[in-house]
Amino acid sequence: EVQLVESGGGLAQPGGSLSLSCAASGFTFSSRWMYWVRQAPGKGLEWVSSISAGGGGTYYLDSVKGRFTISRDNAKNTLYLRLNSLKTEDTAMYYCAKDSRGLSRGQGTQVTVSS
User: Fold this and answer.
1) 16: pLDDT confidence band, cut at 50, 70 and 90?
2) Per-position DSSP letters for 30-67, written without gaps between them
3) Nearest to residue 70, comparing CAs of 101, 109, 35, 98?
4) How far is the C-alpha of 63 from the C-alpha of 57, rounded, in Å?
């Protein structure tokens, strides 16, 4: 059974930082590209970032480029997303996913950016 379990969300002030983690199991994590997607209140799912199977290729939504960093530890079957210089518009439920559309995703972790 595929499981993706996110953690690390919370409340941050504008300009602050958070670190998200996603523990993966039930599939060969090290052979798959992985993704972070998010869903803001009242909006659809939005792709945020991708990372290649080996971790050497990373891609970002333009609005988070330079602020967010995706990484992975294949030995620990864990995906990460470091969120820096947070903005109020980053407020959303964040999901790790096996596909870029988020069809196979975890339960999510809430990120709220507010002063």
Assistant:
1) very high
2) GGS-EEEEEE-TTS-EEEEEEE-TTS--EEE-GGGTTT
3) 35
4) 18
Q: How high is the pLDDT of residue 54?
A: 95
Q: Which residue has the tokens 């052979």?
A: 31
Cα 58 to chain center, whole Å? 12
| Cα 45 from Cα 95, distance rounded (Å) | 9
- What's the gap between Cα 4 and its chain centre? 11
Q: For residue 10, give the amino acid letter.
A: G
Q: Is residue 79 classed as helix, strand or coil in its secondary structure?
A: strand
The answer to whether residues 6 and 106 touch, using CB atoms and an 8 Å cutoff, is yes
The pLDDT-based confidence of 24 (bands split at 50, 70, 90) is: very high
User: Which percentage of the chain shows pLDDT scores above 90?
Assistant: 98
| 3-state secondary structure at position 91 | coil
Name the 3-class secondary structure at 97.
Answer: strand
